[in-house]
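JOB MANIFEST
job_type = single_chain_structure
chain_count = 1
residues = 186
[input]
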Amino acid sequence: MASSGDLSVGSVIRFNGELCRIEEYMHRTPGNLRAFYQARMRNLKTGKVVENRFRVGEAVELVRVEYKMMQYIYPEGEFIVCMNNETYEQVHIPGFLLGDSLKFLKEGMEVKVSFEGEDPILAEAPVFVELVVTYTEPGERGNTATNTLKPATLETGAIVKVPLFINEGEKIRVDTRTSEYSERVK
């Protein structure tokens, strides 16, 4: 057991029997009242956000989480199959752990997976991925004065809004956290 003062942003705790990750954590001392910690946590199974106040010195169950970099191999139903690069063991990870960034994964990419014991509880795709545009409408010459965007289909099947000067066959960098175009790769 840990104290509420030992927590920080990114810590994983067991709260009301559920695993939660701390997203915001601040120490508050209101006027002439006792100090407390205000925490905003995300439930790792349901994705719901919960807020709670912890007293100073309150006992909290801190969960030990192990991070591993794994190689994405292929999707299988509602799961993705990843391989441990050291032991070559294949692990089935629920696809919902990756959220919207799942549509940007390509075979061979590195995925950061968090385990509690043998169970995967968190998965993160790379922040930026480089993908080839397979289909987009041709841009008109000289039409670059405005910040207009057009849809483009990427090699993974994902659709992203890109500037007018992007053409088919070009490689672009996409931010997987926001699902937005970042830049053209030369």
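[summary]
Residues 2-62 form a domain with the SH3 type barrels. fold (CATH 2.30.30.30).
The radius of gyration is 21 Å.
exit_status = 0
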